[in-house]
Amino acid sequence: MWKFPVFFILFISLLTSCNQFGKSAKDNSVIVSPIQALNDSIVNDSLNVQLLNRRAQYFIREKQLNNALLDINKALKIDSKEPDLFLSLAEIYFQLGKNENCTSALLKVLELNPDETDAYNKLSQLNLLNQRFDIALGYNDKSLAIDKFNAKTLYVRGMVFLAKEDTLSAMRNFLLARDIKNDFYEALIQIGAIYNKQHNPLAGDYLKETVRLFPESAQSRYELALYLQENGNPNAAMAQYDTMLIMFPSNKYVFFNIGYLYLVFDQRFDSALFYFDRSLSIDPQYVDALYNKGRTLEEMGKLNAARDIYQDVLKYRTNYDLAIEALNRLDRKK
Questions:
Q1: What is the CATH number of the domain that holds 50?
Q2: What domain count does the chain have?
Q3: Which of 65, 83, 136, 208 has CB atoms 3.0–4.6 Å from 127's, for a disulfide?
Q4: Do 42 and 109 fall into the same domain?
Q5: What pLDDT was estimated at residue 18?
Q6: Does residue 189 contact residue 210 with C-beta atoms inside 8 Å?
Q7: Amino acid 300: pLDDT
């Protein structure tokens, strides 16, 4: 038996910026980056809290959280009654993993604006992370009481039900979120992934739609590739992985998946070894790739080398059942 990851999440930040300056061939105007434009505006209007908040949000997207925090703290000294500033502060704390600070900031938002659904959604997410599902659903209820067509609230609600292993309720909320917002990326991904696990042919339609709408998303391509290979179309799956390899040339999962296809579907063992080794060059302790390298060597009849690899797997993860089974299998071949 080969090992393949059945669930895979990549958090990819597709950030676009224009950090180069130059002349337009058309009108000779200077091209100014978004951050430079914000900096210039703040120099001219240093007490404008909305500008400071916009720059903080830019820094949050760029993962420059210390810079974001500096701007928000400066803005709060100017106006401590602006809910949007506390929303940004909550997001900074959320990304820093400071959940108590995040909660305090969100409660301050609701003190200033009791109808702020974004605050309820983030509070729901925090409680979901801490597996306090009933509290998370309670915040969902409060948000939906304000806006029953809030797609983000329905999506978060779906994630809570998914964590509770109530797939039917999760899917119902994901579908509602997608109906409200047709290009809701996260909802589309979850719908496609759930249908895929259920072997529902609708999975292909949703996953192809997600790739069409978001061609730069690694996760959507991964889910589509997984669907294709599990439904007898490994060549189309390989095409998706090849595209991902161009987009993300240092991603261990992409190399692993290509190696897996060569091993299982094509029995091209040399190619499989090459890609498993590429994956392991990025993460030497990636036990799934290591195990499959051992299985490839075993298929090639290199039993001693395979045994060494299986033993290496168990050094990293002592309870890796497939490696234990493999060593027992090799013992029986003696």
A1: 1.25.40.10
A2: 3
A3: 136
A4: yes
A5: 29
A6: yes
A7: 95
Domain end among 192, 221, 249: 249
Both structure tokens of 47? 């007490």
Residues 51 and 89 in one domain: yes
Length of the chain: 334
Tell me how crowded residue 69 is: count the other CB atoms within 10 A of its CB: 18
- Residues 36, 18 contacting (CB under 8 angstroms): no
State the DSSP string of 186-237. HHHHHHHHHHHHTT-THHHHHHHHHHHH-TT-HHHHHHHHHHHHHTT-HHHH
Q: DSSP letter at 6?
A: S
Q: According to the model, what pLDDT value does residue 28 have? A: 39
Closest CA to 69 of 96, 106, 29: 96
User: Which residue among 114, 131, 159 closes a domain?
Assistant: 114
Range of the domain at 233: 182-249
Q: Tell me the C-alpha distance between 326 and 297, whole Å.
A: 12
Question: How far, in Å, CA of 91 to CA of 184, rounded?
Answer: 20
Residues 186 and 218 in one domain: yes
Per-residue model confidence (pLDDT) at position 25: 34
Tokens found for residue 196: 């895929």
- CA torsion 39-42-44-47 (nearest 10°) is -170
Whole-number pLDDT of residue 24: 28
- Note whether residue 325 is domain-resident: yes
CA dihedral 220→222→228→231, nearest 10 degrees, is -110
Structural domain includes residue 21:
no
Question: Which residues are CB-contacts of 200 (< 8 A; sequence separation ≥ 6)?
Answer: none
- 14: in domain: no
Q: What is the pTM of this model?
A: 0.71
Q: Same domain, yes or no, for 233 and 203?
A: yes
Question: What is the pLDDT, as a whole number, of residue 63?
Answer: 92
